[in-house]
What we know:
Elements: H1 3-23, H2 43-55, H3 64-78, E1 85-87, H4 89-101, E2 103-106, E3 109-114, E4 117-123, H5 128-131, E5 139-143, E6 146-147, H6 153-160, E7 167-173, E8 181-186, E9 188-191, E10 195-199, E11 204-209, H7 216-229, E12 234-238, H8 247-254, E13 263-268, E14 274-278, E15 289-293, H9 300-312, E16 315-318, E17 326-332, E18 338-347, E19 363-364, H10 368-389
Parallel strand pairs: 11-12, 12-15, 15-16, 16-19
Antiparallel strand pairs: 1-18, 2-9, 3-4, 5-6, 5-7, 7-8, 10-11, 13-14, 13-18, 17-18
Amino acid sequence: MKNKEIWLIGCLIALLIVIMVWENQDNKGVYGLEDTVALDKWQPFLETLLLLEDNFYSDTPLDDKVLMEEAIRGVLKATGDPYARYLNEEDYKMENSDRIEGEFSGLGIVIAIKDDKLTVISPFQGSPADKAGIKAGDIIVEIDGVPTLGMSSDEAVRKMRGERGTKVTLTIYREGEEENIVVEVVRDIIKIQSVKWEILSEGIGLITISEFHGRTQEELKKALSDLQAQGAKGLILDLRNNPGGLLQSAVLASGMFVPRGYPLLIVEDREGERENIYNFVDPLWKGPMVLVVNKGTASGAEILVGILRVHLGAELVGETTFGKGVIQEVFPLSHGGGVIFTVSKYYLPDGTDLNGKGLEPDILVSEEEEQLKKAEEELRKLINEKALVS
């Protein structure tokens, strides 16, 4: 039997298996979703595969896995979702490990496709990208000389990750600069301690949250307990260049500051149905607080910031935040890989929609080195006001 015939029979068998699975799911498709996929609509796609196998001329044989992966990327790209990504088997394992452990090898940079451009959401504090001067809002024009226009985000991530000690060259467009910036970055192990804390002068506690992963809430509990044991009178929460992370982690962190029973988030699904998420724990901090943000403060970090502003009137010092008000989910695929795409949208407890807009600061401070100073100044005022009232 010829290879072409074997390949065709394989395709037909695969289709029959899919149909049988769908028919035996009590009229539900994969993941328990209603069976809404009409196979006849996908017939031209299958015909294209058959035509390629029959007629395509090239010195290089067609690779079925490459065709399959590029087809998935094409479908995700066609959704217009800037956060949609395909994950091969290795990517999928890394993605799940990152979300739980907060450790990987690479540059320490979070990206997304924004207006068809590969855009930096934020570099992690102290990462190789951060040390190399890469900033939130930078557009990556080339990776090792390869143009990024039309490049999928998962391909870009793969090109930037790699073994510790190896180098990657990024060509950056930055608004306000006349020429592109070329930066050479040495990959390293990025082990993210998501929460760091210290006591500053006059009893001011400083907590920096760099990302929300599986251990963040425990680290934050420890930070709050330690700072209060040291006699902290007020608290600065530094969320600059925090790209978000696990939604659940950000919500749990928010609950450590607001009263039990308060609404934390409104989540809207694809059908427009809304669900309110309420705080189910008692707050661990009830003192004065100021938040420091910038344009790299995104997603889960914006959730925390927004909740504390709505319920506690917490002041924001810095720049307007990134503006990511949608939620993604990771779905496994049968070959060991997976896909990420947007599944819902969230609103702050007062109904504020920050997607594409961000949160404007109460006190605008553009210079990075001045932001923390201003936050300290504002917090001292709050501490003194509290003392006078007492």
